[in-house]
Amino acid sequence: MNVLIFLILFPLCIAGLALVLPAGNALRRTIGVIAGIVLCTVPIYLLVTYLDAGPVYFHAESHLVNLLMLAVELAIAVFIVYISVRAKQYIPVLLVVVQSLIMAVFEVTAGGSMEIEASLFVDKFSIIMALIVGIIGSAICLYAIGYIPEYHEHHQEVKDRRRYFSFLIYLFLSAMFGIVFSNNLIWLYFFWEITTICSALLIGYRNDKQSIESMFRALKMN
């Protein structure tokens, strides 16, 4: 289970580093290379260790984690409502309010009485997906770290928010690993919500009319 938790939390730690690291590209690339090596190696270890083991389920204390996830989901919902109202986009507001109410009512009325025996699991398919997320995802992150300075050189009208950009792509990776290994629908929904908001914010990175419209289209679809 520690390997699965590591794969979820390690990119989250890199995302946190991305917010505080200096804007210089050399240090970011070094961190990106190290993170990429780790995120490629650990799924391979998972492949060697669990490929022939069949589905393996891991018990994790879930009720307190569920409450924490619910709090984060509600914070995401408030944020989506805020940016949607500012942009006069009311369909995302309706969708997020409805699904947040459903999740909150479920957690308050039934969540405490439900016992999830195994909130995490690994099987052959999740190993394949972990390899894809770890190897392809790391390559994308490393490319993006090198690409974003050049992008801003050619698009000086776009505000340079490379720290924010790097934070989002590594947070997205963390959530993808969470989706792959979740055996709990509340956890799966939580990680899905994070990928939704990350992808939407990345789409809207330019912060112009076209990218904002595309961002809200992504929110509606997801």
What does it look like?
- A two-stranded antiparallel sheet has the order 1-2.
- The mean pLDDT is 87.
- Helix content is 77%, strand content 3%.
- It is mainly α.
- Helix 2 (25-50) packs antiparallel against helix 5 and helix 7 (185-203) runs antiparallel to helix 8.
- The longest helix has 31 residues, at 124-154.
- It is flat and about 50 Å long.
- It contains 8 helices and 2 strands; from the N terminus they run ααβααβαααα.
- It has helices at residues 2-20, 25-50, 63-86, 90-109, 124-154, 162-181, 185-203, 209-221; strands at 56-58, 120-122.
- It folds into 2 domains: 1-60 and 116-183; 63-115 and 199-222.
* SSE pattern, N- to C-terminal: HHEHHEHHHH
What's the end-to-end separation, in Å? Answer: 29 Å
Largest sheet descriptor: 2 strands, antiparallel
Overall radius of gyration: 19 Å
Overall structural domain count: 2
The strand line-up of the biggest sheet is 1-2
Number of strands: 2
Number of helices: 8
Sheet/helix structural class: mainly alpha
Q: Helix content range of the residues, please?
A: over 70%
What percentage of the residues does DSSP assign to strands (E)?
under 5%
Low-confidence stretches: none
Average pLDDT number: 87
Overall 3D shape: flat
Question: Concise description?
Answer:
With 222 residues, the chain is mostly helical. The chain has helices spanning 2-20, 25-50, 63-86, 90-109, 124-154, 162-181, 185-203, 209-221, and strands at residues 56-58, 120-122.
